[in-house]
Amino acid sequence: MPFSLTGKTAVVTAAGQGIGRAIAEAYRDAGARVIASDIDPSKLQDLAGVEVFECDVTSQRSVSALADFSGKADILANVAGFVHHGDIMTATEEEWDFGFNLNVKSMFRTIRAFLPGMIELGGGSIINMASVASNLAGVPNRLVYGASKAAVIGLTKQVARDFISSGVRCNAIAPGTVQSPSLNDRINAFDDPVQARKDFIARQPLGRLGTAEEIASVALYLASDEAAYTTGTVIVADGGLTI
Ligand code: NAD
After folding, report:
1. Is the C-beta atom of 18 inside 6 A of ligand 1?
2. Bridge partners, residue 34, by sequence
3. Alpha carbon of 97 to those of 62, 91, 145, 159, 179: distances in Å?
4. Annotated catalytic sites, by residue?
5. What is the pLDDT of residues 158-192, one digit of tens each?
């Protein structure tokens, strides 16, 4: 069977819904022991066949507790992230700090918590959720988000380069617009949600939104031994947004 994760331990942040949940399910279905974590444990209750753990990735203590619970992990999928809406004139310093803390510094914390165990195991795979809204593309009203996701890609390349000889790979995924609960919230925040959904779809040349499962497939590949020669890169799965 391709992309087997049998015998591996995988930790997923923000696994309660959307892309994180789909990744936790894909890793579970591929045979991994999965620790599915989220700040909201109620979202993890109906996730079968995985171990669940409440973790707020903006808290060092919470991330350390997740690492203690999980033990050494072969795979770390950093999925937690937040979409701030606004441009450089409307964003506040507080929003900038919150966005960077949740979208980037969270990965600084989790990677530092799990990397030593991966090195002891002789290797591992870190998958960081970026976005096409980053250094790859400017998207309207995504100032904090795009800047923080560009930082995710920089962090990914640095970790990949610094630990390449330890067997640890570190890659990022840059999705386009993907159907998820928070996307619904963003669409419903518009005065005309029906038109807003059409506009989101219209910016995808493929003519539709992506699914969380389509992003999870990429995360499964990157976690697998089949991706052994792939590190420090960004896989774009964006419905053609950046063509
Ligand atoms: P979502 O936004 O619907 O869900 C996010 C999850 O994160 C929720 O379960 C929430 O409880 C959890 N969470 C929030 N704060 C947390 C914290 N401090 N610690 C731990 N968990 C926390 O999910 P989504 O839209 O699938 O997005 C997942 C990731 O994919 C994000 O990093 C997002 O930026 C990225 N992404 C999403 C899209 C998209 O269109 N949906 C596109 C590109 C990138």
Report:
1. yes
2. 10
3. 19, 10, 11, 22, 26
4. 145
5. 999 999 999 999 999 999 999 999 999 999 999 99
